[in-house]
Amino acid sequence: MNSLSKAYQECEEIIKYHSKTFYRAFSLLPKDQKKAVWAVYAFCRIVDDIVDEHEDPVTDLYAFEEEFRLFLEGRFQEDNSMWVALSDVFSRFNMDVQAFWDMIKGQRMDINSRVYETTNDVLDYSYHVASTVGLMLLPILAPGKEKTLREGAIHLGYAMQITNILRDVGEDLERDRIYLPRDLFEKYHYTQAELESLIKNDAFVAIWEDLARKAEMYYESALLSINEYPLYSRTPVKGAALLYRAILGQVRKNQYNVFTKRNYVTAEMKNEILSMMS
């Protein structure tokens, strides 16, 4: 196995381990596009892990930014699988460099413990950490259609990140992060103290459903442009959207327990959703 094949394989292992939903959906792509998605995911995962797992995320994120600058100049560590694979991706596809920088900026928001006053603040965060992924992938999934599909990709990122937020309320609290916007606390008469006490009452459900409706609106908006994608990527993109959207249904099925239960779409449900699309 040559070094490039090995690099792509290691990137594949990263997404296979960390995101079974994305891995399942994008495994439907042709070989070259599939490998490119693995490399982009590895980049996003590494940045995310710096912020969530490292002891000194500020220093390490700046160091990663410098690595990315050097990468863009063609200088990178030949023994780093992610950079090796990503270099091949950048040589094959017309990648959106700004989307990568915006992703890094979004991760820095978590380091700085940003307070989210409004839903628009949540959307701004969602753009930086999730919509950017869609913009990174557009040149791979729909070359030449980047402008046409840009809004849909941004909206799908909004939808998926709001879904993440609604699924991970309890996990985020453990990291001292609250992404639910304060204006909804006021609107539905729920307090931060109640949230931190893991109180799931009607007010909490109202906040959750308010954001869930916005997520579902953005899923619908994103899917309006699905037919603009080439045939080879249409099913994977739609599949990813539907599989992720199904998480909202699982939370409802589990009586909105996002404090002590991990809500996920089972393999059986994934098979059912994907089979309905074929």
TrEMBL record:
CDD domains noted in UniProt: Trans_IPPS_HH
Q: Which InterPro entries match?
A: Isoprenoid_synthase_dom_sf (IPR008949), Squ/phyt_synthse (IPR002060), Squalene/phytoene_synthase_CS (IPR019845), Trans_IPPS_bact-type (IPR044843), Trans_IPPS_HH (IPR033904)
**Associated pathway:** Carotenoid biosynthesis
Q: Extract one GO BP annotation from the record.
A: carotenoid biosynthetic process
Record Pfam families: SQS_PSY
Q: Which GO terms describe its molecular function?
A: geranylgeranyl diphosphate synthase activity; squalene synthase [NAD(P)H] activity
Alphabetized, the UniProt keywords read: Carotenoid biosynthesis, Transferase
Q: Does the keyword Plastid apply?
A: no
Please report the name of this protein according to its UniProt entry: Phytoene synthase
This protein's species is Bacillus coahuilensis p1.1.43
